[in-house]
Write a structure and sequence with these properties.
25% of the residues lie in helices and 32% in strands. It is built from 6 helices and 16 strands. The protein is elongated, with a radius of gyration of 21 Å. The chain has 2 domains: 138 residues, no CATH class; 167 residues, Protein Transport Mog1p, Chain A (3-Layer(aba) Sandwich).
């Protein structure tokens, strides 16, 4: 098999990014709603200016792959004099400081500074133009830093009530692990497939895991990923009506893919919508496709949400966190 080279790049931040700093254990638990960010500005006027609009436009942009409009992050603005201790335990904090006293634009990245888990990012700049430049160069990396701490908080919570039976089943069948809460149950499994789901009266969250031999690099192409998903869901995920089944709703919004650093592994992230052939169910899905080079196989970790008449961003983020808890066994082949 041709080796897949992947240079591990967690961030794509410019040279202005200062070294991150962490505090020792013993910090209070961080607070804040899921995907809620506190943005500290010099004053309210700054938040209402082009500076604030630039921040709101980026972090408040629509999350792709959802059936209704939901922002990446909700934001609460505080002028710096109002940023008192009670707010410093928030999980996601962005601080903006623009002053002529500052000699050059820079970014400070602090992990678990006032609480844990927490990410505090401070952008300092001598003027607005230098702020716009450094923000534009580093905004994607900053977003991923906040996403990482959101996933960390969820994974930590899931660990407190982990479903050990599913963990053992995954290890035995696929030779890797995921951290799933106890409410999840195995709905169906086959030699190279497993369907795990959690059902409530209001919503449903599901995870599909499947693997197949790695033959060619086209396994990472969007059409191949979608075709394999449709094949698996038609075979294993029936709808409520006789003959109905799950499929990708590519006539509504064509799925979007991108390359991601998935726990230091090369992977393709796919986001889109699913629907039910022969019925009216549907919702968003999120998957990661990667290669287990030791065992020469493609692994897809897929997830979906069904929550009619509800917002789905937070439910999908929970599934994203579960998928990011993925960990291959240390010894893979012949285990």
């Amino acid at each position: 098999m041709k080796n897949i080279l992947w240079s591990v790049i967690i961030l794509c931040l410019s040279t202005f990014l200062l070294q991150s700093c962490s505090k020792p254990n013993g910090l209070p638990n961080s607070t804040g709603k899921t995907l809620e960010m506190i943005v500290v500005t010099n004053n309210k006027e700054q938040w209402n200016s082009r500076v604030g609009q630039t921040i709101k436009s980026f972090f408040g942009q629509e999350q792709i792959g959802l059936p209704q409009s939901e922002a990446l992050y909700s934001m609460v603005n505080l002028p710096e004099e109002a940023f008192i201790k009670m707010y410093q335990s928030n999980r996601d904090i962005l601080i903006i400081d623009i002053s002529e006293k500052i000699t050059k634009a820079q970014i400070e990245n602090k992990k678990d500074f006032w609480a844990s888990p927490q990410r505090v990012i401070k952008i300092s700049a001598p003027n607005t133009e230098s702020f716009f430049k450094i923000f534009d160069e580093n905004k994607e990396g900053i977003l991923e830093l906040f996403n990482m701490v959101e996933r960390e908080r969820m994974i930590n919570a899931f660990k407190t009530a982990q479903n050990i039976d599913i963990a053992n089943a995954l290890s035995g069948k696929f030779n890797f692990s995921l951290i799933l809460p106890s409410a999840y149950k195995i709905a169906k499994q086959d030699s190279n497939f497993m369907w795990i789901r959690k059902e409530t009266l209001e919503d449903s969250q599901g995870i599909l895991i499947y693997s197949y031999p790695y033959i060619h690099e086209n396994a990472f192409e969007k059409d191949i990923i979608i075709n394999v998903r449709n094949m698996m869901t038609k075979r294993y995920i029936p709808g409520p009506a006789e003959g109905s089944f799950m499929k990708v709703a590519d006539q509504v919004i064509f799925p979007l893919t991108k390359t991601v650093n998935f726990n230091e592994l090369f992977a393709i992230e796919t986001r889109g919508l699913w629907e039910t052939e022969g019925d009216y169910m549907g919702g968003p899905f999120l998957s990661y496709t990667l290669v287990d080079e030791v065992n020469n196989r493609v692994i897809t970790l897929d997830s979906y949400v069904y929550a009619p008449s509800q917002n789905k961003r937070d439910l999908l983020k929970q599934l994203e966190a579960i998928l990011y808890s993925f960990k291959m066994a240390e010894i893979s082949k012949g285990a």
